[in-house]
Structures are given as structure tokens and as C-alpha cells.
Amino acid sequence: MFEWIESGRIVDAILVGLFVEAMLLFGLRRFLGLGPGLGDIAANLAAGVFLLLALRAALTNANGEWIAIWLAAALIAHLGDITLRWVQSSVEASGTAGGSGPSAS
Question: What single string gives the DSSP state of each residue in 35-85?
Fold first, then answer.
């Protein structure tokens, strides 16, 4: 088990799980109309992926620059996620959702 951690393979397994989760959410939304769309969670998923890549780089003793790059990418994705959520909540609060969605009927 320790080799999985040292080699970064544990992160690879988690990334596969994250991909499966994203595809499940996509399928639920596309075929059943349930849950958030990928567009709604893309920035959040990206931030998580970038953090995992930073962890993998650290576990495998990669150059510190790579760790910094992945962490900076995670910060940018996180800020994008916060911005999208902020805008979405502002639109919902003002009632100007543009007539799409469940409350438009």
C-alpha cells in the first residue's frame, strides 16, 4: 500500500474515480434530467483535479515548479467556480433567470 502512495498511483486511482463520477453526473443529467450539468461543476472538478495533480507531483518528488503550477491552476479554477456560483446566485436572487429551468413554467 505504501508503494501506491510513494509512486503516486493512489492519486491516479482517485483521478479515475473522479472521471467516473463526472461521467455518471453527465449521464444522469443527459438521460434523466437529474443533478447538475457538467457545465455547472466543471470549474469545481478542475480545481479538484489540479489539487490532485499537485499532490501527485509532491508524492513523486517532482520539481517544485510543477507543484506550484498545479496549485496555481487549482486556485484559478477555484476562483472561477466561486465567480460562477456568485453570478448564478445573483441571477437567481434577482429573478432574471431568462425563462429557462423548472421555475419558468
Answer: S--HHHHHHHHHHHHHHHHHHHHHHTT--HHHHHHHHHHHHHHHHHHHHHH
In angstroms, the CA 24 to CA 28 distance is 6
How many angstroms separate the CA atoms of 13 and 59, rounded? 14
Identify the domain containing residue 60 by its residue range.
2-93
What was the pLDDT predicted at 105? Answer: 42
Which cell is 86 given?
Answer: 456568485
Q: Which amino acid is at 68?
A: A
Q: Does residue 55 form part of some domain?
A: yes
Residues found in the chain: 105
DSSP-derived letter for residue 104 is: G
pLDDT tens per residue across span 14-42: 999 999 999 999 999 999 999 887 788 89
